[in-house]
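Pyridoxamine 5'-phosphate oxidase family protein: structure, please.
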Amino acid sequence: MTDEHSDDVEELAANRCWELLRDSEVGRLAVWVEDHPDIFPINVVVDHGTLVFRSAEGTKIAGALADAPVAVEIDGYDEPSGTAWSVVVRGRAERIQQVQELMDTVDLPLFPWQRGRKGVFVRVAPTAVTGRRFPVTDPAVWRTPSSGARRAPDE
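Here you go.
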């Protein structure tokens, strides 16, 4: 089955993906936790062709540093052009532990939104970077005559 609007989707070159990532602060980290996938919001920064985030010990860090690969998705919207974009970085996560590398990482413009101890720095080394850009559809396209009426929860 072919999507009739697939011509509207622009596959982004890797260098364009990295440009978009460099201008972004927030993404979603997808990891495998025990017997299921899980997704966590992260503040992220590009550093020498990798992504770096910081967090506290917990499920997110345990999942990221497990044996399974991870994915980070970051997306955005360009209002003037009416286009959206999405970039996915797949790879392996590793804890930053070497003293010099840790010192360099502390100086990155990486500012978590949530308070608390965020002393674990993690680097995602990519094995694949993909991205796409597409025009955002006017919401009116999706409205039907009955979509304006809301049902009560017990109906």
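Notes: The first helix runs from residue 14 to 22.
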